[in-house]
Amino acid sequence: IKFSLSGMYKKILLVIFSIFIFIIFFFTHFQSISTYGKLDKIINLNGFNQLEDMEISFDNNYIQATLYFIGGKSFNNGNYLQSKVIDEKFLQVWPNHLDVLYRLAYAEHKLGKNDVALNLVKKLKKIEPDGLYNAYIVEMFIYLHENNLIKFEKTFNELLLKSEELLKVNENTYRMMIYFTLHSKKLSAYAPFLYSKYIENSVNYEYKDGTYYDRICEVENNIAINYFNQEKYEDSANIINKVSNKNLKCFNTDLIKLLNDKGLLDIQASK
Q1: What gap in Å lies between CA 123 and CA 116, rounded to an integer?
Q2: DSSP conformation class of 78
Q3: Which tens digits make up the pLDDT trace of 152-172?
Q4: Is residue 56 classed as helix, strand or coil in its secondary structure?
Q5: What is the DSSP string of 129-143?
Q6: Where are the beta strands (DSSP E) in the chain?
Q7: Is 102 helix (H, G, I), strand (E, B) or coil?
């Protein structure tokens, strides 16, 4: 026995099936669609405090990427209060995201909540893989802010005991360690070694026009200051003398003046 459907019945069944599929899709993705709209409105109005009332699903990659981006943008712009709100919301759903945990810990520190920051540091230390030491870096910032030199030096020395293979994984580790040596006479002795390791493992020093990247400028300036503080004036001057004219902007102007007054700089009139 064969059954045949007229063209009209086929169209009716197709419409019913389409409506059925639409209903399934709508109720399956209703929360995501609603969240997209709310998030776009919050971003446009810059009302990030409203994030606290938003519900976010665990499998929403768009929301994750958006929160990560705007949180990072706020953090990099120094808007720590805003980045904190965004990153706290992010971590409610994705609690072990390393970058966001680091951002939140540093933001809490910058906002004066060092106790909260230290708790986040403890968590970050447990889950960061070998070669990533952002937890140690935030911890040292906290102890510097609290003028706790003993704990600051202890954290630095714990990091220094890590193997060279691990310390060079992230370029920022040696860079920040050089910076921290400026804050302790005892630790300043490690600066030349750390500087040599940073230079040895760094790539892409400069732009096409020969000017240094900001991170390289920072390192060169900090090692020059370190040598000067140790009264190794010729070593300090040698750091400056080796760079091209266009990279003199990397260095502290007071440092240049002091070394120039000592007759140690090869500064030409064009500089």
Answers
A1: 11
A2: T
A3: 999 999 999 999 999 999 999
A4: coil
A5: PTT--HHHHHHHHHH
A6: none
A7: helix
